[in-house]
UniProtKB/TrEMBL annotation:
It is found in: Cell envelope. It catalyses: 4 Fe(II)-[cytochrome c] + O2 + 8 H(+)(in) = 4 Fe(III)-[cytochrome c] + 2 H2O + 4 H(+)(out). CDD domains: ba3_CcO_II_C (cd13913). Residues 55-158 form the Cytochrome oxidase subunit II copper A binding domain. It comes from the Bacteria. The chain crosses the membrane at residues 9-32. PROSITE patterns: COX2 (PS00078), COX2_CUA (PS50857). This is Cytochrome aa3 subunit 2.
Length: 158
């Protein structure tokens, strides 16, 4: 079979790209352990206030985990608990959040923390706060008449 020179180049380029992509994907998934966020953690939305860790919202130092702190948030129409939280600069924080009523958003402006909070499910994300300053937490899922007032604040301090 005769292949034109350009066909050969494109075949090599195409197969080469495929191998590169599969390698990147394989290293990311199996070596670095990256995976899509799971929705396996569930909770009874009516018992949020009495279910750990949501019975004590706020920042907690943890030992022996991949992250230094756990930051627990409870969302409900139309506020977040806690309403404000201080985090030391450089802290690796696992944000754990859920909602007591309808779907809310959880976006920390200026970072790539952006989760949807669904009733019955627990949303989690690990983030390292490397910049000092104030970060607004916003609800970016329309949840009712008070949606635009639904905010909280993270203050990253030295
Ligand atoms: Cu909560 Cu919009």
């Amino acid at each position: 079979m005769h292949l034109h020179k350009f066909e050969k180049i494109w075949l090599i380029f195409g197969i080469g790209s495929l191998l590169v992509f599969l390698t990147v994907l394989g290293v990311s998934a199996f070596y670095l352990g990256n995976q899509p966020p799971s929705c396996l953690a569930t909770i009874d939305p009516e018992k949020v206030d009495t279910t750990a860790p949501f019975n004590e919202p706020g920042l907690k130092k943890v030992e022996g985990k991949e992250w230094d702190y756990e930051l627990v948030f409870v969302a409900s129409a139309f506020n977040y608990t806690p309403g404000e939280v201080q985090i030391p600069k450089g802290a690796k924080v696992k944000v754990i959040a859920t909602t007591k009523d309808v779907i809310h958003g959880f976006e920390v402006a200026g970072t790539n923390v952006n989760m949807m909070l669904e009733p019955g499910y627990i949303s989690e994300l690990v983030y390292t706060f490397n910049k000092t300053g104030e970060f607004l937490i916003l609800c970016n899922e329309y949840c009712g008449v008070g949606h635009h007032m639904m905010t909280s604040k993270i203050e990253v301090v030295e």
